[in-house]
Design brief:
- By secondary structure, the protein is of the alpha+beta class.
- The strands form two sheets. It has a four-stranded antiparallel sheet with strand order 2-3-1-4, with helices on both faces. A two-stranded antiparallel sheet has the order 5-6.
- Helix 2 packs antiparallel against helix 5.
- The longest helix has 20 residues.
- The radius of gyration is 16 Å and the shape is globular.
- It starts with a helix and ends in a 7-residue tail after the last helix.
- The C terminus is likely disordered.
Length: 199
Amino acid sequence: MNHRTRNFLAALLTASVLPLGVTDAFAGNRIVLGNAAQTSLAASAEAHTAKTLKELRSKAAKGETIRVIVGVRAAFAPEGELSIADVAQQRQEIADMHSAVLQKIPSLKAKPEKIKTFSTIPFMALEVDATELEALAGQAEITSIEEDRLVQATLPILLSPTTTRGASFPRSAWERLCGRSASCVAGAAQSCIPTQSVG
């Protein structure tokens, strides 16, 4: 996996995030990572989201393609906290949401070399142009869009249920998704990071 993508996803997965009101058997264990509201990011009034989209749009307006990490609206919990059956269900829901998002952007779907989906977490690594960026920002199925770039990140060492050390994450990568302090166990987060390479 590209080290930028790995570090970014590690940061996201070591954060506690907004709860989701789902009704399946393991609803209590799962949350939506990112924007939990059933609205598009383009319609969001959240300051960081607006700033990030503005910066990405500025780059795209120059004719550049942009590498981004995109979160999709699939409920998530670290697989170590789930039963075997629940792991299978969660992976299927993530795959279904990836497909639903890409189905709405034919130009992107036609370039599989620009797409990297992850089976265990609700994120995709994409390379998009201006039109594709706007299409993503306009979908309610998208919960976050961040530039795929270098970040400083180390997995935390658990000291207590609420205290960690050894973590250094930039606000742009994860803090806006949390709303409160990180409480994930490092081992659980680490087990969710896929090992495939991003092309």
